[in-house]
Amino acid sequence: MRTIRQLLAGEDEIQLAVRLALLALLVYWSFIVIRPFIPILAWSVVLTVALYPVFSWLSRLFGNRPKLAAAILTILNLGIVIGPATWLGLGAVEEFREFAAQLSAGTLEIPSPPAGVRNWPIIGTQLAALWEQASTNLRALLGEIVPHLKPLAGVMLSFAGTAGVGTIKFLIAVALTGFLFPAGPRLVAACRRFLSRVVAERSEDFLALAGATIRSVSQGVIGIAVAQALVIGIIFKVGDVPRAGLLAFVVMILGIVQIGSAVIVIPVLIWVWITKSFAAALLFTVLLLPVSLADNVLKPLVMGRGLTTPALVIFIGVVGGTLAHGIVGLFIGPIILAVAWELLTAWVRDDDARQARSDSEVQPTAGAAGD
Q1: DSSP 44-108
Q2: Domain residues of the chain, as ranges?
């Protein structure tokens, strides 16, 4: 009798192992199938969460018609992506490729000072001589280090090559948000049920924290950086600044990693005042300075108390997301990593608080037992 039970138990274990193996194979296979669409789905979810307050306002404005509000908001987003973003982005890609090609060929140079610098009163001659010396020294330095930067040029060319696919992914993601907006409450309920099985006691808090982090990073960091870079890029283009698209792209990166646009704007302003007429330089400065300083005003308004995620986490998200998913990963990388960081931090704080409460309850009990 014992032998039969052992055989039955062994058979049950074999069936369980087979079922688990089949389940693991199914999960892995499903992941392989949806892996190309993960960046698109992630960006769609981010856009939906970030723009959901606008969608709700439009829906109420049109008499509680969510489908109409979703259609209008989707068309506006597609217009932004297809219009100025694509126009500036294509220029940036072309300049990016040219820069990478010069870096790979070792023909990258630092320009000499314009002739007009020597005519400046008091400091013109000395500044031109210093500029020329710095340009010569930098050329020699670049001649030594450029051969070591050729692998970087290959990465840059590969990144530029994914721009077309990235644009298509953006368009698909924006179009998909039009279907996610009306389904927002059902999706939130599904996420709440899933989290209740993973972290039953903190499911509501974690869901609210994830949504707040997505809105904070996507609106206060990504959104402001992209909008600022678009406007600055348009001003650069109109002002005939060399490599305007590439400079605008760098402004966007600097805005996302919380460095700011001054690193690019100040040298451009100096170049404009050197090469342009007084009236043109003054107009350019009047247009550019408010836009370059706007993030200092907009970020506190959009983000409220500010971003608690460290800048290093955002930077790692930018680099890692770009390397993993190309141009789309540049935007979703910092958002996903920021959400993971905030949830992990909240989890650790919750465990520490529980441990502290447990210790405070044990100490009086131990003292009473000693008495």
Answers
A1: HHHHHHHHHHHHHHHHHHTTS-HHHHHHHHHHHHHHHIIIIIHHHHHHHHHHHHHHHHHHHHT--
A2: 38-181, 198-346
